[in-house]
């Protein structure tokens, strides 16, 4: 398992776009690696289609995309045709899919779902998401069971938050979306907050009298 802040494994793998070494493939960009249980399965077909439709949004944020499951490259390539047809995709499929037939990556990254198995009884990969920063370190991970499809709009929202924190020293509150007010990090002093956020810092009164709830317009 990789923990937040740790260097993501620099694994080597075969993909639908040829062999990769992960850090070289990332090349100092942000990246998202998302796993799915198996090729030619219905929920996965909707998820990979939605991810492909949102590829321009990931590109706008400088985030490279890559998917993985335990099927071989040729199976991925055949399945991509179904994903394209079902989701009405046009043009080249926008991201590679890793073949993890030996389940090496699935084990290394803690992605196996004990409740969902192949006909032979082997565990399938769950629906994991890893967002990796330009420093090759893990910035976010989520893990859904095989039976629950993810929301890729939520993943983009979380990436907006991650990138804002990385660049502007703010945190984002519940249900935040791009453009909403942000929270000043608790570690920032009152004086520094004034300098860092010239658009203004509002300190919200609470019964404890503590001045820890500080909002500021989203820094540009
Ligand atoms: C699916 O993608 O539909 C799926 C895959 C494995 C288990 C359950 C659902």
Automatic annotation (TrEMBL):
PROSITE patterns: THIOREDOXIN_2. GO terms for molecular function: peroxiredoxin activity. Residues 2-164 form the Thioredoxin domain. The keyword RNA-binding does not apply. Keywords: Antioxidant, Oxidoreductase, Peroxidase, Redox-active center. Pfam families: 1-cysPrx_C, AhpC-TSA. The keyword Oxidoreductase applies. Thiol-specific peroxidase that catalyzes the reduction of hydrogen peroxide and organic hydroperoxides to water and alcohols, respectively. Plays a role in cell protection against oxidative stress by detoxifying peroxides. This is 1-Cys peroxiredoxin. It comes from Amphibalanus amphitrite (Striped barnacle). The lineage of its organism: Eukaryota, Metazoa, Ecdysozoa, Arthropoda, Crustacea. The gene is PRDX6_1.
